[in-house]
Amino acid sequence: MEEPNEIPQGSDPDKTFPAIDVDKELNPGRNTNFEVDPVSSQVAATKEIQEQSEAARTQKEREKKDALQTLKSAIIISAIAVAVAGAIFAITKKLKEK
After folding, report:
1. Residue ranges under compositional bias (Polar residues) (predicted)?
2. Is the pTM of this model over 0.90?
């Protein structure tokens, strides 16, 4: 009697399918030996690196924009303070003249 995983006698071993591990196929949770496709792994790694560089570039642009916005706000506030100080000085000068 032949065993289920044996190659049948009288046939060419190159033309038969390889034996499978039934326990691994029927219980995938027990299978800890995973085969990794190197091409897919490399593509995924490349995509992840591109996403990280894109995120870093976006973050830099956002920080630069925030810095420019902060500088712009500081200049506007300073200009308003100088205008208010000038107005107060002019009003005080007018009141002293009268």
Report:
1. 29-44
2. no
